[in-house]
Amino acid sequence: MKDSKETETSVQRPILMSDHDQKEKLSPVHKLEGNSRNNFINHVRPRFISERVLSVFYTFCLGGLSFLAFLMLGITGILLMFHYQPGASSGYSSVLTIGSVIPYGYIIRNLHYWSAQIMIVTVNLHMVRVVWTHSYKPPRQLNWLVGVGLLVLVLVLDFTGYLLVGSQESGAAATVAANLLKQIPGLGTALAQIALGEPSALSGSTLVVYVWHCAVLPLAMLWLQLYHFWRIRRDGGVRPL
Amino acid sequence: MARSPINNLKENEGIAALIFLILCTLLAFKISPGVGTSNLAPAVPHATAPWIFGPFQVLLLYLPPWLGALAVPALIIIGLAGVPWAAHYWGDKWGMRIFSALFSLVLILLFWFMVKELWWTRL
Ligand code: HEM
């Protein structure tokens, strides 16, 4: 019971510590965290924070900005879904309609596109920052792996988004991807069908790609990001907003 | 009274978020992304990948598909994933070295793509 009381205090009052003090005094916190393994809130507001990481020049806000980009993509993506229709010819024509007929459609599409481009840059710079500050080292190695998973998901989301434009170029990209997957012995043909459906050489927009891009991958990414944030705390790491 | 470093950081993060949103909005108003070639138009002979996948396109150009687009990217991802363990078993420097080697490889391929596909072919 005593532990849970301490946990509550820690939620309300984070305490600042210098790096020097931190070494010794962090241990009770770790013990406490071990006892409340499932308490998400506890990790979002940890009790002790190293002063060094409270400088904006430690993280350069790159992880937080990547998450902000993800939120932007979610909001603009849902708005795009109101008018986008997957399909060999409907995909391309609905993109044209969004861009030229739907009120504010072009600005929503452009915001979606540019947040995705900027996110690729911020995620990569975030990874460079993590290496620069040696933050991949134990106990953060699992969070590094989660990060690598996020990087792969971002790239796959970007790729499926490109296919949804439904242009000839997206058809070429889908065909190359399908042919590559088919090279995997045994599983290849099934994998290509599961991942891409039946794209034509002239359009990569299929219902299968649409569901991956708008539902499965973003949800997987959201879950992985929440786990990423939880782990930052659990590993005694930096403090985002 | 000096402001707490936490509030200071919060304020800086807020400013960074604002800059990000303004940059996105400006880009969105000024530059519309292309829509590519209509599928009703005559077939295009060559499709250039979006810049993010430029490194793939370069690899595919020079290597057999299984190597260029499956084995090499898989090795890069596995190499990245292994950085903490490389640092743990072989020493800190190796973590940095492996990451730098992989990251530079991707950057070189990207540069190669930019020159070859986006600049050279348009001359
Ligand atoms: C969608 C992508 C990602 C998001 C939204 C994200 C978000 C964050 C945030 C908000 C932080 C807190 C510190 C900071 O802002 O720098 C963080 C820390 C961290 N991230 Fe990410 N991240 C992403 C991708 C990655 C990738 C690709 C890697 C590495 C391969 C990675 C590895 C880490 C590690 C190891 C930490 C702990 C750093 C420390 O304690 O100093 N993350 N991440």
Automatic annotation (TrEMBL), chain A:
Residues 16-241 form the Cytochrome b/b6 N-terminal region profile domain. The chain crosses the membrane at residues 56-82, 89-107, 144-165, 210-230. GO terms for cellular component: membrane. It comes from the Bacteria. GO terms for biological process: respiratory electron transport chain. It holds the Pfam family Cytochrome_B. One of its GO terms (molecular function) is electron transfer activity. The keyword Coiled coil does not apply. Coiled coil: none annotated. Keywords: Membrane, Transmembrane, Transmembrane helix. PANTHER family: CYTOCHROME B. This is Menaquinol-cytochrome c reductase cytochrome b subunit. It comes from Desulfosporosinus acididurans. The lineage of its organism: Bacteria, Bacillati, Bacillota, Clostridia, Eubacteriales. The gene is qcrB.
TrEMBL record, chain B:
The keyword Transmembrane helix applies. Keywords: Membrane, Transmembrane, Transmembrane helix. One of its GO terms (cellular component) is membrane. The chain crosses the membrane at residues 12-31, 70-90, 96-115. InterPro entries: Cyt_b/b6_C_sf (IPR036150), Cytb/b6-like_sf (IPR027387). GO terms for molecular function: electron transfer activity; oxidoreductase activity. This is Cytochrome b/b6 C-terminal region profile domain-containing protein.
